[in-house]
Amino acid sequence: MIKNPYSLPLCLSGAAALVAATSCSSEKNKEQEEKFNIVYIMTDDHTAQMMSCYDSRYVETPNLDRIANDGVKFVNSFVANSLSGPSRACMITGKHSHANGFYDNTNCVFDASQQTMPKLLQKAGYQTAIIGKWHLESLPTGFDYWEVLPGQGDYYNPRFIEMNNDTITEKGYLTNIITEKSINWLENQRDKEKPFCLFVHHKACHRNWLPEMKYLSLYEDKTFEMPDNFYDEYEGREAAKTQEMGILKDMDIMYDTKMYKPEGKSRLKGAYESFVGRLDEADRKVYDSFYQPIIDEFYKKNPKGKELAEWKYQRYMRDYAKVLKSFDDNVGRLLDYLDKNGYLKNTLVVYTSDQGFYMGEHGWFDKRFMYEESMRTPLVMRMPDNMKQKAKGDIVEMVQNIDYAPTFLELAGAEIPSDIQGVSLLPLLKGEKPANWRKSLYYHFYEYPAEHMVKRHYGVRTDRYKLIHFYNDIDVWELYDLKEDPKEMNNLFGKSGYEEITKLLKEELVRLQKQYNDSIEEKLANK
User: Per residue in 147-185, is it b (16+ CB within 10 Å) or e — as a string?
Assistant: First the structure.
């Protein structure tokens, strides 16, 4: 039996069938020929538990949720290396850190001459632009237009590096400015005869969570729910004990919680003075008038121990949520612009973060560990209206940030080079259920010794289990059953009854290392 290629009703025949078939074929070819635009919005350190379509306990993010509500939400989205620069390098190359050469934020400069997804899009006829955070040390390549932040960037009256290598200062709040520059590029600076890929890269919600002036008082009447493992004692988890990212002991009282005293001492006092020193006189007066009463009360009460830990947690959550509020507002501004100007008909809108973050889980802030809160990241996409076949709702398959490059390339009709290690998400975006979709993910973190002192480690994650090996100055394994222990409190490695699953996970880990050509096991064996 010959399959009907156009899914035509069997009662059609002759001229009617030919007309219908021609019509279907024409529509199919039209979609194939259409060049869809891409708007890729990315934040720094925004975590899924602080996005209301994932977790409604803490904040509302109505504009981010719009993307999910009109498209898809990936509920199993992860990164390959939970650190800002390396994560961005993974995204832009479609390769793991060892393959793209950008391992950590302390010793690496991104090799700007290497193959990247924006360069491949340019070859496919796309105009490319990036505005905002770059954080890869070298200047951007593969972009027809760019304006990027030096280093981490500044929330207040920020500096931008322009394409002529001049550094300029803009007045205002960084999140607003990045959005304004992005809209201006869409409106006035791009070649409207070409399809485009625009990267809108925000500093929010990166430490030290400096709010926009109009939101200084927001959330001050809210008491945030504390994670039930806030006072984790890290039993059976040696690497977790030695980190330096605890809210009580490592969160800087001036830099992070803004409890500034001119005569006081803190490790990051100078950095804080530099950041708030960027405010003009009028805004500094507003800023100080808000924080000074809190500062006075704090030093009068002088909390210690658990009282101090919980006070710091509430300050952290409030300031983080304020920074997030400004970002969500700006997502709304950008979506409204795209809608009003007809871009949503043929534009893929993507939102994600460069990694997850700890909002008090295990008593922590920051990221780095392969544990769920930092390896997992929000990812939502709104497909172009003109895309004929598209998914809706939650996508459960495991995806990783190395997958974005091949996804954008396939959407653009460009060839995906064989050395790209990610896989295109386009079948999932079309609602397909590939039978051979990946069953595991590989992760590798390298930055040690460094800020927060998280040990080097690599591991494998399946839908249910996670196996981690901490190495370098330590040789410790951890095994978690994510179904029974989603908060990763009970290390099962070496315990009776888990020998077989440990063996299988180690075999899968080695398989992934061979697949991605990461020879860490061989290096360790030959030490």
Answer: bbbeebbbbbbbebbeeeeeeeebeebbbbbbbbbbbeb
